[in-house]
Amino acid sequence: MERDYHSLDIASFQVTSVRQLDKTLKDLSFSGRTSEAVRLLWHTGFKVEHGTYALLLQECIFGKQYKKGKRIHAHMVIVGYVASEYLKTKLLILYAKSGDLKTARVLFNMVGGKNLISWNAVIAGYVQKRHEEIGLTFYYKMRQNGLTPDQYTFASVFRACAALATLEHGKKAHGIMIKCNLSENVVVNSALIDMYFKCSNLSDGHKVFSKSLNRNVVTWTSLISGYGQHGRVTEVLESFHRMKDEGFRPNYVTFLAVLSACSHGGLIDEAWDYFLSMKRDYGIQPRGQHYAAMVDLLGRAGMLQEAYEFVLEAPCKEHSVVWGALLGASRIHGDMDLVNHAAKQYFKLDPQNAGKYVVLSNTYATFGFWDDVAKVRSMMRDSGIMKEPAYSRIEVQGEIHCFLMGDKSHRKYKEICSTIIKMMCTLRDAGYVPDISELIHLED
C-alpha cells in the first residue's frame, strides 16, 4: 500500500529500513516537497544512498534553497558520509550559487578530477559576486589545465569582461569562442553583444548581432540596451520596432531600455505610449524601475508636479527606486519641499542601505544644508552602517588594475600620485575649478 505523503508526520516517522527512507525522501523530492525531505533526513539521522543525496542537493540548487542544501551537507558531515567527487561538485555548485565563495573555494580544492562543471561553478560564482578579476583568473587557469570552455564558461567570462570594461580580454575570449564553434549560441552571443557595448565598441557589438542567425528576445534586448547605454535613442527605437516586426515579444528588460532611452531623448509622448502598451499589448505589469524611468523623464522635462502625482498613483510606490528617481529630479530643479518629502520616503523604505545615506547627504550638501548632512552622517554612524569603500578599475596593456579608496598598496603608487598632481596643476592653470557641491561633508 502506498504511503500518503501529503499527511506525513515527520515527528512520528519510523524508519524500517534505509531503502524505505531513501524511497520516502525521493518521493517527497519528486513531489516538490524538498523542505520536508530535508527535515525528515535530519529527524532520522540515517545515512542514505549516494543518489538520494544527489537528488536532494540538485533540488535545492534548482529551487535556490541554498540554506536547505547546506543542511544536507551538514547532515552528511555529522553522520560521517564521505562524499564522492560527484557530490563534492554538487556541493561546490550549491555554495558558489549561494555566494559563499570561501566554502566553494575549499570544496573546489578538494575535488580531485576537476571537470568543466567544477570550473564553471567557481568562475560563475566569482563573477556573480562582483569579483570579476578572480573569475577571469580561474578561467585562464582552466584553459591552462587543458579544458575546453563551453557556453556557460563564455557567458560568465563575457559578463566579467563587460563589468571590467576590458576589451582586450573580451576579444581574446571571443576568438576562442569562435574556435569552439559557439558562434550561433544565443546565450553566448547575447553576453558577447553586451560585453562589446559596455566596452564602448558599438561597431563590433552590432556586427556580432548582425551575424547571429539564432536570435531571441534576450539577443535583441542586449542590442537595444547597448545602444541605450550610449544615448543612441534613434537606434534604440529602430531596433525595438524591428524586433517587433520580426515577431519577437519584448520583455520587461526591453521596455526598461526603451523607456530610459525616451527619458534621455526627452520623448515624453512616445514614452507614455510604450509605458501603456506594456500591460495593454503584452500583459507585462510595469515594475518599480519602469515607473522610475517615467519619473526621471518627467523630471528632466521640468514636470515635477506631474512626476509627484505619478508616483502617488503608482501601484509600486512602496518601491524605493521610484522615490529615488523623484528625489533626483527635485534635487536638480532645486525644489526643497519635494526634496525633503522624497528623501524621507526614499530613506524610510530601506534604512539599512548605506547608499541611501550617501544620496541623502549629497542632496543636502548640494544646497549647503550642512547641519542636515551632519545629522545624516550621525544617524549612519549610530546605526553602525558602513559604506563600502569606493574603487575604480582600469585596463592597461591587458592588465586590470584596481584602486580602492585610501589604498596605497599599488606597486606604482608614487608614480600615480605624481602624475595626478601634475594633471591637477595643469587643470588649475587652465582655469578649471572643481565642483565639490556633491562631496559628502565629513566631520574632522
TrEMBL record:
The keyword Ribosomal protein does not apply. The lineage of its organism: Eukaryota, Viridiplantae, Streptophyta, Embryophyta, Tracheophyta. InterPro entries: E_motif, PPR_At4g14850-like_plant, PPR_rpt, TPR-like_helical_dom_sf. One of its GO terms (biological process) is RNA modification. NCBIfam families: PPR (TIGR00756). Keywords: Repeat. This is DYW domain-containing protein. Gene3D superfamilies: Tetratricopeptide repeat domain. It comes from Manihot esculenta. Pfam families: E_motif (PF20431), PPR (PF01535), PPR_2 (PF13041). PPR repeats lie at residues 115-149, 216-250, 251-286. GO terms for molecular function: RNA binding. Transmembrane segments: none annotated.
